[in-house]
Amino acid sequence: MIRMREAKLGDLFPSGEGMAFGRWQDVTIRGFSIDSRRTHPGDLFVGLPGSLTHGGLYAAEALRRGAAALLLPSGTDAPEGAAGLWHDSPFAALADAARRFYGDPAERMTLVGVTGTNGKTTTALLVAHLLRAAGRKCAYWTTTLVDLPDVAFRPQWTTPPAHELQRFLRAALDRGHDHAVLEVSSHSVRQERIRGARFAAGIATNFSPDHLDFHESVEDYYDAKRAFIRGLPAGAAAVLSADDPRVLAMGDGIQADVVSFGQDARADVHLLDLQQRQGGIEGRLRVKAGRLGPEGDYAFQMPMPGRHNGLNAAAAFAAALSLGVPGDLGANALGSFKAPPRRLECQAVGPYRIYNDVAMNEASYHAVLRTVRDLRPEQVVVVCALRGNRGPQVNARIARILAHWQQELRYAPLIVSESRSDLREYAVDYEVRSEEIAAFSEAANMGGLRLSRHEELPSAIEEAVGRLRPGGVLLLLGTFGMDRGPAIARQLLRQKLGLPEEANESYLEPHEADY
């Protein structure tokens, strides 16, 4: 449990940083808030600029809820009588103040960051698993789960805002953990969330277009990923995909030591002889003599299907080696890795199989559909939850991928869910916009893919279960709009077989945890 903390603003913001208003230097704060609705008495409320609104507009509400002071972007009006600062770079100012407030915990920890378009969550969890297998005290923050490990919860962010990140690291350190693994999103780089955190290793898994609702262009998105790798200090390991030229190019001219992984024979950790087995993969990891130690050849098995998961394993193995984990120990530990929720999870119900994946962009859809193709199922029925609040381009790309794979897997009509009621339950806005539905439908139509659209998830899965034959595979794809999908599918399949119902299953919603 974090000890109660407090600090004076004058100690968090050195002289000359920002422009003060009111009697601010002696104001004592006890925490931070970037959402007026979640402001607590004694907080420093930070009015950050956003894509849809501006936090500064809610400063008065934050004060009514007990905020002790304000940090606002320069040029923003401050409520009369308030104390605080205007700052030209409020994201950076928040990061610096939070590090000082929590005692800069990262300075006493070994941090591993994982960026890339796809595979970040699985790779981050694999790294944490290998470090723990080697006896390291390791906490982690991923999209799927935060683990301290006595407190575990599903977060609202892939990478938390700067003050939440520093609070998490402080909590980990106070619990005796000297390692932490973090997913590093492009948003977190652009918004200075990881500012000042020194990483011992940084992984870039792959790159493909995504998050164009936030980034101005694909190049801007790429530059954010590259900025994390370029920011790694001398002596750190930059673990980069040898199979992706754009990822490997992130290492040009950087201070950190470049370590490559992949199926390219020139990689420092070469993935070879990869075989897919029912429910998992096996292969070898060949280590080139150099920064990672002597040459070695390590056989491994992992209970997750898919070539892409073999690459995730190679990336995590390379990072673990760079931190001193013995190769034999790391390779053996891959066999005991527990697959994270909704990352190509496979469940059997009688003669039926359910595969479900939190596919979110064209590359992840490609990877999942390729894996299912290689399993050679007798029948495939696909339910896809549209991705909400990510823009028409992302949805159109996904539809084109699904149209392409229909030619091999023959799952038409594609069953599509808007998951309206499910998405309303989340605190974060994942609602599917009309323009996203239109873009998906138009791209599917142009690709010759017939659609069966449903407003709600249960009716979409009910149609799919009705079409599924013994020996068939039900493939559930999509992000938050598909979270309840596996549980709904299992119950309907059990009803179809005349089996008793399972106990209710609840999938964790993103939320804040008190630790």
Question: Your description of this structure?
Answer:
This protein has 515 residues and is an alpha/beta fold. The protein folds into 3 domains: 7-101, MurE/MurF, N-terminal domain (Udp-n-acetylmuramoylalanyl-d-glutamate--2,6- Diaminopimelate Ligase, Chain: A, domain 1, 3-Layer(aba) Sandwich), CATH 3.40.1390.10; 105-336, UDP-N-acetylmuramoyl-L-alanine:D-glutamate ligase, CATH 3.40.1190; 345-497, Protein-Tyrosine Phosphatase, Chain A (Alpha-Beta Complex), CATH 3.90.190.20. It has helices at residues 9-12, 59-64, 90-101, 120-133, 162-174, 186-190, 218-230, 245-248, 307-322, 327-333, 362-374, 392-409, 420-424, 434-446, 457-467, 485-497; strands spanning 7-8, 19-21, 28-29, 31-33, 43-46, 69-73, 84-87, 110-115, 138-141, 146-147, 152-153, 179-183, 199-204, 237-241, 257-262, 269-277, 280-287, 296-302, 345-349, 352-357, 380-385, 414-417, 451-454, 473-477. The strands form 4 sheets. Strands 11-10-9-12-8-13-14-15-16-17-18 form an 11-stranded mixed β-sheet, with helices on both faces. It has a 6-stranded mixed β-sheet with strand order 19-20-24-21-22-23, with helices on both faces. A 5-stranded mixed β-sheet has the order 2-7-6-5-4. Helix 3 (90-101) packs parallel to helix 5 (162-174), helix 4 (120-133) packs across helix 9 (307-322) and helix 12 runs parallel beside helix 14 (434-446). The model has no long low-confidence stretch (mean pLDDT 91).
